[in-house]
Amino acid sequence: MSLLSIRGLTVTYATGAGPLRAVDALDLEVPAGSITGLVGESGCGKSTLGRALMGVLPDRGRIAAGQIVFEGRDILAESERARRALRWRRMAFIPQTAMNALDPVQRLSAQMAEVLIERGGLGRAEAAAQAAALFRLVGLDPARLSAYPHQFSGGMRQRASIALALALSPSLVIADEPVTALDVIVQRQILDVLRELQARLNLAMILVTHDMAVVAYACDRVAVMYAGQVVEAGPVAEVLERPLHPYTMGLTHAFPDVHDSAMALVPIEGSPPSLLNPPAGCRFAARCPFADPRCVAEPPPVRPFGQDHLVACWHAEQAPALRVRAADPQTWAAIA
Amino acid sequence: MLRLAAGRLGHLVLVLWVVTTLTFVLFRLMPGDPTLNFLSPSFSQETRAALLKGFGLDRSLWEQYLIYMGNLLRGELGQSFLQGKSVAALLGEALPNTVILTLVSLTAAYAFGIVAGAFLAFRRGGVVEALAIPTTLATRAAPEFWLGMLLLAGLAFQAGWFPTGGALSPGKEMGSFSESLISADYWWHLALPALTLMLFLQGLPLLLMRATMLEVLNDEFIVMARMKGLSRWSIVMRHAARNALLPVVTAFALGLGASIGGNVVVETVFAWPGIGRLLVQAVQSADYPLAQGAFLLIAAVLVVMNTVADLAYAALDPRVSVGAKR
Amino acid sequence: MTARVTPLLQATGLEKTFRSRGRIVHAVADVSLSVSPGEALGIVGESGCGKTTTARMLLRLEEPSAGRIVFDGTDITHLHGSALRSTRARAQLVFQNPFDALNPRFSIRRSLTEPLRNFGVPASEHRDRIDAVLRRVRLTPPEAWLDRKPHELSGGQLQRVVLARALIPGPRLIVADEPVSMLDVSVRAGILNVLREARDSLGLAAIYISHDLALIRYVCERTMVMYLGRVVEEGPTAELIATPAHPYTRALVAAVPVARVDQDRAALPIRGNLSDTPTAGAGCPFRDRCPHAMARCATETPLLRGIAPGRRVACHLEGAL
Amino acid sequence: MLPWTRGCRSVRSVRLDPYATVGFTIYTAIAAMAVFARQLAPYDPKAILKVGNRIARYLPLSPEHWLGTNSSGRDVLSQLIWGARSALEVGLTAAFAVVAIGTLLGLVAGYLGGWADRVITWFADIVLGLPFLPFMLILAALTRPGAGVVIFTVAALLWPNTARVIRAQVLSLRERAWVEAARVTGCSTARIMFVHLLPQVLPLAALYGSVAIGWAILAEASASFLGFGDPEIISWGGMLQESYANQALSRGAWNWFAPPGAAIMAMVLAGFLISRGSEKLLFPKLADQ
Asked: Residues of B with CB below 8 A from D283's CB?
């Protein structure tokens, strides 16, 4: 039984040109006690999904359909009051840029205390002790609690954000591009903190990222998103080594490997479809070197494939052959 | 922070010096004999001689300037033509009235503006906003003396609820300003001019508060506060309002400086015996020493309050006052 | 690489200092480098290491506080005004953020005409040169793009226009500052490939600035690693990555994320964080974060020394490996 | 959403914004009054009207005199219509001067930085230390009262507001990569400032212009009210001054002092409405709400 299971979730944004379907009939299972990577390019709906789970969408966004079953309860069916009770206590959030996500005019001690007291029901002294403990947990000196956010470096702010997220011992943490704005060394250190705490506290975590390497380093499972949908999902080892979807295959060849100079990079030509009027068939068809008329006409269903591996592609059966062809830049150049 | 304060204070002194010098030049470059402009023909021969010597009006411009600056530093502003009093004494009588009028109206305006602005930001859209915004803009667009005229005609002349001008009813005399302060008559006279100014002044804090609140409410840390499941009250008061108040506090300090001089027309309409009215009377009756003194005082207050506004903003925003530790 | 090619660009002892709270801070200290036609040099390091400032000095977008830059036979260190402007045609910059690198009010045609006009190319040639450069960056057919405004293009397309604008005056040197970091993963390869082809077919010298060693590895034969304004190591890219000599390079190589399941997840060979850095004075800037720091590291700034053909390192550690 | 797509959307929405529409309508109406004053005004605004052989003082509202007459027997409506002329003249001239000076200095200070910036900022600080109305009064007293003093004072004292925002915008534009790109592609400093940057800041400058029109008219009204207007010219402020001085308040002659004040308010409000309607342009964050 998953800790979180999302079924047919659709999130739309009202725009002048009609509703934009940022997340479209999306299914996803997040098991307890593991890190699930949610990987995709900008505009694929991965961040929207994170915010929809927290129940805090931008003003123009709304959940148009679907179910979010969390800890056995369908939380979309519950009252706003019940959902608010859940927030931060059961599911917490780590933002991309901790600079903007922390109140600039309040000390970190006040921001920690606010959550611990108002949401955690702690007393003032208990809250101070707990804040110090949390700072230690993420590798920050508790003496720095009296600092303002702008006095911290990017890595320290991100650690403070993690401490805040863990304040009320949630069972699920959603991290939205938590290391994107950081330098490689700090990035690695923050990923290590996340991995270590996840294991120690047996958290479930959704790690939203655009970087397949971050997924490979930190995640147990991965879901690849494209144009508002999950196109492939499974254990990281499976998806990375035996990708079934041509988009995933493209991504694994799209950026260089520091230890391999012979590798030829493969650009995926074209750009994702408009989510105002998504194409009828497979959304990747226009950029896919293997697309045939059926792909353009009919959306491929999500199918289980092998051990715990899901894919939405009509050609998944030919995946081993396609993987060989996908490694050749000429295959993709034909699309342009 | 200390460095910043020292820098701003140094700047303040510099600006004050330039403004006083400019005033000196302005009053000496006017047409006619500048000497005559400072000596009323009505003065006695001895007074004339004393003033000529005291202000160095018979010497070169350069020497006059040095004497002028020296006098300023000692608070010596010269002799008014008409009232036979020293300029400093006249200003001293008028200043408290102006300060009271300004403080009362400005405080009321900001208290109202902040609350109403926060409310409008909170309740966005709808009929309330559609009516409130244009109305507020209209109060800022109306000439303040015209607002005063409307109130005067309606509430004083027609309804008779308020006096038609001055600071005290005819025949009443107050020994000192503090005596005035505790008399109901004084406050009754203050009501209409203060209301006029308040009407005119409340628009700025209201619109500023609303705009900054809306901006802050869109910031990512507010989204985070919602994700944390914090109550709406916590979000609005602890996070949004605190951040949004920064520019409003600055505007208050700037407004204080500006309205001491900006009260000119309202004081004139209500015959309120403040600095502004004194200035107008002095200019109308070519009483140059008094005009110069009033102008210098108004400018000094403005310059000082500009600096206070700068410092207040810096003090309230930790991003400025608490330097990054790097 | 042949050793006896005259370098196109040679910089020696570059420094950039600025005053902050009464102290003098070195953004860049004693950086020397050279690039020859057809060669690509990578400068790699974390934010704040001075790599961007170095690049801006090389293009004379900033004036060095000390040092000397000789470009194409001319000392450009202190050039100003029109003398400087005329060298710009031969040294161009590719920007990091394509969404911001084009005047939003200018059509693509106008953005590409601007350099031709400024560098005095006769108007009769404009049309042909614009066509050719758009083909080179694979925006075809050219006439389909000319009248568009930047907001109508995707990030990858914009970066191709930025590239085209850099190539159109016929430069001999291209400096690319994080040319793909703002782009979606799927279009990065396209940009890198176009850059690589342009360098090969036009014989350009190229300098790439990046925090990403993997990217540098893909496009540069030679790499310089910077830390806090200083060059700590330089050498052929493949060797430098395979056998990093400086402790900082080692940490950097270990930290680069790789999209593989089996990878080293051991703790990085580095301590503390960037804010624990000594601010001034003698000594190695990396000593407080270095797992191998010795007493000597605190007193004596290590100088770059050769450890193998084409390889230099600034570290007191003997053998360094 | 990327910043410039936001901007483009906002430009379109400015035109449709109801606030801005009302503002432009008011301007159009006042401009029409000013241009066609001769045709629109039922009487000569300076003519002393008679009823029989008595001066037609304080006539109430009537079909002959829509807004009645004043204490000297002049038609209030005709004065109101003619007053639009001086309002428009003073407002437009002063606003143009403010925007021209402010934009130029803001552009120079923001882009060149260094000593140019320091000198301009220093001047702005001095000017901000001069109280507006008192300065205008003294100037009027020392020279010749009239519109010239008003326009000069508005231009001389209000440019720092425009310069400050233009400078701030240029400072942020200067950091944009495309401005640096202009340098790299061989643009001269002048070309960057006037071909690349100026078009970007002009909308903002125009916005400040529409507000400055309002300040100029208020300043003119205040000066006239305090007796420093040109008595030969019919202006709304002058009408207010005349009514105040002739006991219109105690007589309850609302028809005399209410309309000119309302006209000033409408004109100033128009500027506010336009700049407010375009606030979305300045604060795209708000527009996205």
From this structure: 211, 215
Taking an 8 Å cut-off on Cβ atoms, the answer to whether D177 and C100 are in contact is yes
DSSP reduced 3-state for C241: helix
* C162: chain D residues, CB-CB within 8 Å: 181
Whether A254 sits inside 8 A of C215 (CB atoms) is no
pLDDT (tens, 9 = 90+) of chain B, 326 residues, equals 677 788 888 888 998 999 889 888 888 776 555 566 666 666 677 777 776 766 666 777 788 888 888 888 887 777 777 667 888 888 888 888 999 999 999 999 999 999 998 888 877 777 888 888 888 889 988 998 999 899 888 888 887 888 888 877 777 776 677 777 778 788 888 889 999 999 998 988 898 888 888 888 888 888 899 999 888 888 887 888 888 888 888 888 888 888 777 788 999 998 899 999 999 988 888 788 888 889 999 999 899 988 888 888 888 877 777 654 33
Is-contact B200 B144, C-beta < 8 A?
yes
Contact criterion met (CB < 8 Å) for D257 and B138 = no
Instruction: Give residues with Cβ within 8 angstroms of D146, minimum separation 6.
Output: D140, D229, D230, D233
Q: What separation in angstroms does the CA of D196 have from each of B245, C107, D173? A: 36, 13, 10
- Cα-trace Rg, chain C: 21
- Minimum CA–CA partner of C275 in chain B: B326
pTM: 0.84
D 217-236 near B (Cβ less than 8 A): 218, 221-222, 225-227
What is the CB neighbour count within 10 angstroms for residue D28?
11
Q: Which residues pair with A15 in a beta bridge?
A: A18
First-last CA distance in chain D: 13
Torsion over CA: B129, B130, B132, B138 (sign)? positive
Number of C:D CB contacts under 8 A? 66
Q: Tell me, what DSSP letter sits at residue B79?
A: B
> Which amino acid type is present at position A213?
A
Distance from CA of B304 to the nearest CA of C (A): 26
Enumerate the residues of chain B whose CB falls inside 8 A of the CB of residue C277.
none
Residue A95 has its nearest CB partner, among B220, B243, B246, at: B220
The C-alpha atoms of residue D211 and residue D228 are separated, in whole angstroms, by 23
Collect all residues with Cβ–Cβ distance below 8 Å to B259 and sequence separation of at least 6: B102, B105, B106, B197, B201
Q: Identify all chain C residues contacting D3, using CB atoms and an 8 Å cutoff.
A: 99
Locate the chain B residue with the closest alpha carbon to D267. Answer: B141
- CB–CB contact B230 A147 (8 Å): no
8 Å CB contact of C255 and A188: yes
Is C2 an 8 Å CB contact of chain A?
no
Angle, vertex CA D8, rays to CA D6 and CA D13, nearest 5: 90
Rounded to 5 degrees, φ, ψ at D162 are -65, -45
Q: B216-223: long-range contacts at Cβ-Cβ below 8 A with a sequence spacing of 24 or more?
A: B216/B240, B216/B243, B216/B244, B217/B121, B218/D285, B218/D286, B218/D288, B218/D289, B219/A100, B219/B243, B220/A95, B220/A97, B220/A100, B220/A101, B221/A100, B221/A101, B221/A102, B221/A103, B221/A104, B223/A51, B223/A56, B223/A101
Contact D158/B at CB under 8 A? no
H helices within chain A, ranges in order?
46-54, 80-86, 98-101, 108-114, 124-137, 154-166, 184-201, 212-218, 236-241, 246-252, 293-297, 319-326, 329-333
User: Looking up tokens 């989204």, which residue turns up?
Assistant: B223
**Of C298, C296, C316, the residue nearest C307 (C-alpha):** C316
Q: Which residues of B touch C21 (CB under 8 A)?
A: 323
- State what percent of residues in chain B have pLDDT above 90: 13
Candidates D2, D5, D184, D188, partner chain C, best to mutate (most C CBs within 10 A): D184
Neighboring chain D residues of C89 at a CB cutoff of 8 Å: 186
